[in-house]
Design a protein that fits this description.
- By secondary structure, the protein is an alpha/beta fold.
Length: 715
């Protein structure tokens, strides 16, 4: 490739022109880790030389890193060495082993790259049979006359695995030409120059974090300030404080992050924020909600945030990342469409005040090098004006296909129009339309579930339900996403068996046992709720998302095709309209949910720490999930209450703030009950000087006063 045509050439150019300019600053606690262009280039070359001693050109290297600059060094080192990088979610205790194993089986890596601290987790996940290097242990140049291979446009740079899938992961093959084309499109659409500044916390192993926050600054030549997703989830104000401190011009996240800021950042915290430098507030990776944009503007206009900064955009891993967005400084464009017409894939504009109006946010101007065709997915012909269809793409950004999956590659990447044979096109599986050069996404043809920016495959969730509920077999459960006030949420539709029907009938005959529950006699209603709690816990433990609704359908009434396959869209429609023959249903924020084990008052009188943690969790459930829960059995799994990854972070931070003991969010997946979590806190407190502080806080809890940090008990 010509000089300046790939990410490695760009790095060389910046080393020549601005060697001592900072390119990365990673924030962690009270420390920061930085790299200039010169430092990055030297480190990357040293690592590449070492990698070549362990793997050959075209081999795959699995990158398993915690948040930090070691990841980007290893990623670029792979590119220099001609080794195909495979970014993946780092293993964590008791979780992600199946996902990691599936990626290993698919990519067949020659090498695993990680940090010395992460090696035990990698080995515990069963990956110890592969040659593993801790790159932070590589401190000296490899030496010798290392010659880096020639990289051309069609050389595969990395495999971007579609997130969430444990059963059939698919690695998108991104070439250097794909990457260069997409980075140029982002720079052009965002109007990035060397005077820009990015602040970001998105995971580096996801396409938005990798392509947008890590590689775009390197490509254009401006600095990036980065920190971990957990730091944001713990305290969302950290995101906006970093934008304020470093005068960021570009920063963004999926839709949920903006809502998280609105819910969590206090009026007192807002006083220290200045968001006037924020020119590009991109919003992507899940449906963009008008209500989210409006709430964020209303909450942070006082901090200098302007609605014109919002930059809704659209992209997907199969097109490397970016497809459409902007233009900058215009703000979001909205259309009000008649909801019933959209169900028929027709466009009919209505007044924004119409009760039938559905507000569709534009995903922005289509990138110059991107060709978009709106196609009828049934006959593969272009849609007539005024019709909604599947979005098909053609571009040099579109990846070559899925690694070692020729059939799925042909189906998704080699589509052609039926009438003219034009193509090939990428079938996105997303439904929408184009108006005045802007792309509007209205829904999804495929069954992908997107929660908090993560792509979850319904068959993976359904498989977990089959494992934990004996009567649930293949093609008798559907995992679907449904719109709720807080955004897209996960729901399950399950075919009941005869015993569950009898159980539900008995509960209904007893008036849903509401009076019995008040007396502590839960009967059959408690059995139903215990079953839902069991499902909740399994799904939350595996995918870190909470269930919003569960509905059991009478046997023989579950929507299936003539060949016996699940009709997920029919399940979703029946769930929303209430047209399915429900035996029993539950919804997170309006249920009489009783955790497994009932509401029994198994309190440890005199052990105030247990009550303190209990009250904190109850408070979170009542405020965040709007759950009608006053008392939890101390041996009930916290995950069974509908606590996802965001909830785990919030509860961990809350317990930490009142006990003084460091609580990592992962601990809620290891110590799942109040009893076990309290025992852990006690053991940690006994090992540190925090024991006195913990004792003092428990005394405050007994008195019923506010804690010194302003928090209070919730009894």
């Amino acid at each position: 490739m010509a000089f300046g045509d790939n990410i490695l050439d760009r790095l060389r150019r910046h080393v020549q022109n601005q060697p001592d300019q900072l390119v990365y600053r990673f924030l962690q606690d009270d420390q920061e880790d930085t790299r200039t262009f010169r430092q990055l280039d030297q480190r990357v070359r040293d690592l590449a030389a070492r990698f070549q001693q362990h793997a050959a050109f075209g081999d795959r290297a699995l990158l398993l890193y915690p948040p930090g600059l070691e990841f980007i060094e290893a990623f670029l080192g792979c590119l220099f060495a001609g080794i195909i990088a495979v970014p993946a979610y780092p293993p964590r205790k008791n979780r992600n082993a199946d996902r990691l194993e599936a990626i290993i089986n698919d990519a067949r890596p020659r090498l695993i790259l990680t940090t010395r601290h992460s090696i035990p987790g990698v080995e515990a996940a069963g990956a110890s049979v592969i040659d593993t290097l801790a790159t932070d242990d590589i401190q000296t140049p490899a030496g010798g006359g290392c010659s880096f291979p020639a990289i051309d446009a069609e050389t595969i740079a990395f495999l971007q695995y579609t997130s969430g899938s444990t059963g059939t992961p698919k690695g998108v093959m991104v070439t250097h030409a794909n990457l260069t084309t997409n980075e140029k499109a982002i720079a052009s659409s965002f109007r990035h120059t060397r005077d820009c500044m990015v602040v970001g916390w998105l995971p580096a192993f996801h396409d938005m974090g990798l392509i947008g926050n890590l590689l775009q600054p390197l490509f254009v030549g401006f600095p990036a300030v980065l920190f971990s997703p957990v730091r944001f989830l713990q305290k969302p104000v950290r995101w906006l404080e970093a934008i304020t401190q470093y005068r960021a011009t570009t920063s963004g996240a999926p839709n949920f992050a903006y809502d998280h800021c609105v819910r969590s950042i206090t009026e007192e915290q807002k006083k220290g924020l200045d968001l006037s430098s924020w020119r590009i507030a991109y919003n992507g990776a899940e449906p963009i909600r008008k209500e989210t944009l409006d709430r964020f503007v209303a909450a942070f206009a006082c901090c200098g945030f302007r609605i014109q900064a919002f930059f809704p955009c659209y992209g997907l891993a199969e097109s490397t990342l970016f497809v459409s967005g902007g233009p900058p400084e215009r703000g979001p464009s909205r259309l009000s469409i008649c909801g019933p017409s959209l169900e028929e894939h027709r466009l009919a504009l209505v007044s924004p005040e119409s009760p039938k109006a559905r507000h569709i946010i534009s995903s922005g101007t289509i990138a110059d090098e991107m060709q978009v065709v709106v196609v009828d997915p049934k006959n593969c012909s272009p849609c007539l004006p005024g019709k909604v269809g599947e979005i098909w793409l053609s571009s040099a950004s579109v990846a070559h296909g899925y690694w070692d999956r020729p059939e799925e590659t042909r189906e998704s990447f080699r589509a052609r129009l039926a009438d003219t044979g034009a193509g090939p096109y990428l079938r996105t599986g997303d439904m929408g339309f184009v108006k005045d050069g802007e792309l509007f996404i209205t829904g999804r043809l495929k069954d992908l579930v997107i929660i908090h920016g993560r792509n979850l495959y319904p068959q993976d969730i359904e498989e977990v339900v089959q494992r934990v509920v004996s009567f649930v077999k293949a093609n008798t459960v559907a995992a679907v996403s449904m719109e709720a006030e807080s955004g897209e949420q996960l729901a399950l539709v399950i075919e009941a068996d005869r015993s569950l029907v009898q159980m539900a009938n008995a509960a209904n005959e007893r008036g849903a046992a509401s009076a019995d529950k008040a007396n502590g006699n839960n009967g059959t209603a408690a059995e139903l709720d215990a079953l839902i709690g069991k499902i909740q816990e399994a799904v939350s433990a595996e995918f870190e998302v909470a269930l919003h609704a569960v509905a059991f359908v009478r046997p023989g009434r579950f929507p299936r095709t003539s060949s016996g396959k699940v009709q997920r869209q029919a399940c979703l429609l029946g769930l929303l309209k209430g047209s399915l023959d429900f035996v029993h249903s539950w919804q997170a924020n309006g249920s009489s949910f009783v955790p497994p084990g009932g509401q029994g008052h198994h309190f440890h009188q005199g052990r105030d720490l247990y009550r303190l943690i209990h009250d904190r969790i109850v408070h979170w459930l009542r405020t965040a999930l709007k759950a009608s829960i006053d008392t939890i059995n101390y041996d009930t799994s916290i995950l069974s209450l509908g606590v996802g990854s965001v909830g785990a972070v919030s509860i961990a931070l809350d317990v930490e703030s009142v006990t003084g003991v460091k609580i990592e969010p992962d601990l809620l997946y290891e110590y799942r009950t109040i009893n076990r979590l309290a025992q852990y806190v006690e053991s940690r407190s006994a090992q540190t000087a925090g024991g006195t502080r913990l004792s003092n806080r428990c005394a405050y809890h007994r008195s019923g006063k506010n804690f010194p940090d302003g928090s209070r008990q919730t009894r």
